[in-house]
Amino acid sequence: MAVTQANISEAGAASDRVTRHLLADRLYHWLMAACVLTLLATAFLPIIGVKFEWLGLHWMTGVALSALVLIHIVRAVIWQDFWAMMIDRADLRNAWRRFAQTFGRKGAAPGKPGKYNVLQKLYHAGIAVLVLSIIATGLLMLLKIDTPLWRRNPYVLADYQWGWIYVVHGFAAMGLITMVMIHIYFALRPDEWRLTRSMFRGWMTRREFEEHHDRARWAADER
Amino acid sequence: MQLFRYSTSIYGGSDVLIGASWDLLPWFVLAGAVVIVLHAVFKAATSRRTDRIK
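The joint structure predicted for all components is written out below.
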């Protein structure tokens, strides 16, 4: 009898949860976070005066981040709902309505977002541009150092070409600091805790789902 | 304030571009801080207005 009741309550609890991030996606997120923070620390601590042997850890973490991003792209294109992260017409309409409502204009109320709102999609696009720029230039910069796998060969590019590669790598890395600060701020805001929690646990409550998301735009139950 | 870092070429002649200027680092940190403060102030102000309407 007790077992049956436990099963019923477990089933009830399970149906009250909406899966937001699978384990593979949460692992990707936290491994990427560890890589990005390690890369920022090994890049910028020596610049602000904390001297240590940074290069080995930096390039190895960079290679790990490149592999993670490659896996993420393949997963996003083949197994995930790729279009869930793309800005569509409904996002633009809702963003305009939200803007108009905020500044006191009358009109239709904004609709709810799908899995991600327009600002999250914009943030993802920004991070994608920065991280892909850093990876592309970083992989080229590996040609300038000796590793156990290859010998350095800096002569494949001219000095001015290397200069621009370092410029892109540097600006994108500094831009990443701005983006990481903003990301951590939003993750810590109490009104966003449901999203932060879901990146640990993988799920949000059905009430949170119904309150904040449009069932027609995020068919969470069917995935 | 410089946007880029340059090095003197060992062969003489013009300076060689070697990367972004690290003098810009505080400005990127400041940009993040400004976004955070503006958003926090905006949310505080709009939530107060929403509370008044309720």
